[in-house]
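User: I'm preparing a small set of examples for a lab meeting where we compare how different chains pack in three dimensions. I only have the primary sequence for this one, and I'd like the structure in token form so I can line it up with the others. Please keep the answer compact; I'll paste it straight into my notes.
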Amino acid sequence: MVYRDSKRRKILGVNFYVGDANGAIDRIARGGLLVVPAAPALKEIAHNAAYRAALLDADLAITDSALMVLAWNIMERDSIRRLSGLEYLGELLKREEVRKPGNTLWIMASPEGAEKNLAWLREQGIEVPQDCVYLAPMYSEPIEDSVLLEKINTLKVRHVLVTVGGGTQERLGHYLKLNLKYLPAIHCIGAAIAFLSGDQVRVPMWVDRLYLGWLLRCLASPRRFVPRYLSARNLLPLLWRFRSRLPVEG
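Assistant: Understood. Below is the structure token output for the 250-residue chain.
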């Protein structure tokens, strides 16, 4: 049994925040990197050095992975709550400092996704200036993006929301944290906004609370998501073997 702090758990070497969404937002709003590790990416922590470094250097990691939360609670006889990226984003977008035009830069994964996401944000009363939208290129390893760095340093936004895929977004957020001239709040929320905007299958909050968002994604796009979520089962032996310790190769 591991030592338990009321708001933190060390799982696979990563300090996860186990409080509520508003508590997480309050902690990261002053500046720092927040990551939302999903099971299909988290299973790579043992052998993906750049991804591992991003998680370990994050200022806050939230418990988005339903598989991780369920397995941890069973294995450790614990009762941590899941804080999904979708729940986190919903609370974040209520904050006036995030809604204010010019305060937030959105990093979008594709032109089509950006169009849907921005349209949805407008419906929520959130106007995003064009210069506060950045279309992410296809990143290689290691991640470098001097254009994005210059843009954020020039705009001096208070919040950066990263909506690219899991595994990449954490490394991009880490790159920004290490290389920006100042430290905004960097929120790696991944596909959360796509569940709201219709860029991916819409996931109602009640479905998210029942840990079934993965099922809707698989039903909507089986060729894309079924293999991804099947691969997530490889997280279980890591949790069983390492528990709170950082996994090592070999």
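A couple of notes for your slides: The chain has a mean pLDDT of 94. The beta strands are 8-11, 14-17, 32-35, 60-62, 104-108, 133-135, 159-162, 185-188.

User: Perfect, thanks.
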